[in-house]
């Protein structure tokens, strides 16, 4: 199967690796199917690409690589919705906001993308009663660190 993407042009994808978001994403409830692609040239960056809408793509990271103390308690209703039976089948990402040509990058730790990798089901979870915010500063590139001095 081939899809048009925001960052990679046309890409051949494996249909069985499409991730289904039954409730869509907040603000994009009609978008149900996404595919994860690596972002070329990115330091551990990924793209959550809509299968149906080429212009809809989110840059994301594995938050545990950058925020060592980060912890996510997946609510029971989400475990049920995604049919999570074992934490080993869970993959978690954080969406990024990138401004001014990489000079300001923040990670949304309050709204992680939770995926059951075995069943290819996903949901953006909003963590309530947590100290996490939607904008945690992130330094991915040397130029970004130098520009913030």
From TrEMBL:
User: Where is the major localization of this protein?
Assistant: cytoplasm
The biological processes this protein is annotated with in GO are: bacterial-type flagellum assembly; regulation of translation
Q: Which domain of life does the UniProt lineage start with? A: Bacteria
> What is the annotated localization of this protein?
Cytoplasm
Q: Which GO terms describe its cellular component?
A: cytoplasm
Query: What are the UniProt keywords, alphabetically?
Result: Bacterial flagellum biogenesis, Cell projection, Chaperone, Cilium, Cytoplasm, Flagellum, Translation regulation
Q: Is Cytoplasm one of the keywords? A: yes
InterPro entries to which the protein is assigned, alphabetical: Flagellar_assembly_factor_FliW, Flagellar_assmbl_FliW_dom_sf
Family assignment? Belongs to the FliW family.
The free-text function statement in the UniProt record for this protein reads: Acts as an anti-CsrA protein, binds CsrA and prevents it from repressing translation of its target genes, one of which is flagellin. Binds to flagellin and participates in the assembly of the flagellum.
Its assembly, as annotated, is: Interacts with translational regulator CsrA and flagellin(s).
Q: What is this protein called?
A: Flagellar assembly factor FliW
Species assigned in the record: Niallia circulans
